[in-house]
């Protein structure tokens, strides 16, 4: 039940990206860091459980960025994939820095060479960050593209974030699905935070980032009612931006898709009775990315739970990186 929120509405930041990664809390995961050679230009976390060691969110020194969300698939549409979805954003950010590949070319390569038929349902938001241009008195941006293996043609790309004032949310459904309250609520909260920051002339980047983490921490998941069917309760997750620890099955034996699909669960009367260290599923990591008008990136990741399922204090779980995008002003 991950969520990504993206905006071009702040005058000081051509791109704002917020992300919650929801997973089994004891799934082996590397925190955000610069990757080792030959991919030392890539910054992001990694999934250590699958051989691909894929990512859900990463950015490169050259400004390529990718964030992935899963599809919530129920019944017969759910299947165990042969390949990790983390390989999908990997394919974009690990390409050689000097390689020039447009969005349609990458989507075609993804479908024809990398392959998307042997992974579970996903949506990938990706693109190369560059300065806005002034056209007819309005700011225009290079934009980001969205590709999904639930519409597997390269020419089915959706383009977003091409104009000033756009704010979009994406969770575990197709882009534009307004039936997910967490997406609508997240967009509203992000717009309000941007408006307040601009109106107040705050320019306190740390304070603004903290406000964004507050958005990612909105918990509207109700307690599970006595006798409530598990698949019914799982659907409540579409209401909550943050997913607190809830009952489920061990990450060692089942993928998180089965949790999201409503196929499995433990019959606990409320989430407070779950033994997090063994069975917890929820928001594992939170990330805020701010890109300013000079091409300066601030990437902040918070780990909420350690590999034993224990709560991590903010000061211990936060990683922060700042760097300048190479070639920001290049044509």
TrEMBL record:
Pfam families the record matches: TANGO2
GO cellular component: Golgi apparatus
PANTHER family assigned to the protein according to its UniProt record, in alphabetical order: SER/THR-RICH PROTEIN T10 IN DGCR REGION, TRANSPORT AND GOLGI ORGANIZATION PROTEIN 2 HOMOLOG
GO BP terms: Golgi organization; protein secretion
Name of the molecule in the record: DUF833-domain-containing protein
Organism placement in taxonomy: Eukaryota, Fungi, Dikarya, Ascomycota, Pezizomycotina
């Amino acid at each position: 039940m991950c969520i990504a929120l993206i905006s071009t509405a702040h005058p000081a930041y051509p791109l704002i990206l917020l992300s919650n990664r929801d997973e089994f809390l004891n799934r082996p995961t590397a925190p955000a860091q610069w990757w080792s050679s030959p991919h030392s230009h890539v910054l992001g976390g990694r999934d250590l459980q699958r051989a691909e060691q894929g990512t859900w969110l990463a950015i490169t020194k050259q400004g390529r960025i990718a964030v992935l969300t899963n599809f919530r698939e129920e019944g017969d549409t759910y299947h165990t994939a042969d390949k990790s979805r983390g390989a999908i954003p990997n394919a974009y950010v690990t390409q050689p820095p000097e390689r020039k590949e447009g969005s349609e070319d990458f989507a075609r390569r993804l479908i024809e060479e990398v392959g998307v038929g042997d992974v579970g349902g996903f949506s990938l938001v990706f693109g190369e960050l560059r300065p806005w241009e002034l056209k007819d008195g309005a700011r225009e941006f290079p934009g980001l593209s969205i590709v999904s293996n639930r519409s597997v043609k390269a020419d089915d790309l959706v383009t977003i974030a091409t104009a000033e004032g756009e704010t979009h949310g994406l969770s575990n459904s197709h882009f534009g699905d307004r039936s997910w309250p967490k997406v609508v609520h997240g967009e509203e909260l992000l717009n309000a935070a941007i408006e307040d920051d601009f109106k107040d002339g705050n320019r306190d980047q740390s304070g603004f980032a903290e406000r964004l983490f507050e958005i990612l921490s909105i918990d509207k998941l109700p307690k599970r009612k006595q006798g409530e069917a598990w698949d019914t309760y799982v659907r409540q997750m579409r209401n909550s931006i943050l997913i607190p620890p809830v009952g489920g099955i061990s990450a060692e034996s089942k993928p998180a898709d089965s949790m999201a699909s409503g196929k499995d669960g433990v019959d606990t009367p409320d989430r407070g009775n779950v033994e997090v260290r063994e069975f917890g599923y929820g928001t594992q990591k939170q990330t805020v990315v701010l890109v300013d008008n000079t091409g300066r990136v601030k990437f902040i990741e918070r780990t909420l739970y350690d590999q034993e399922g224990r709560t991590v204090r903010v000061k211990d779980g936060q990683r922060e990186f700042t760097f300048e995008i190479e070639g920001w002003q290049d044509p």
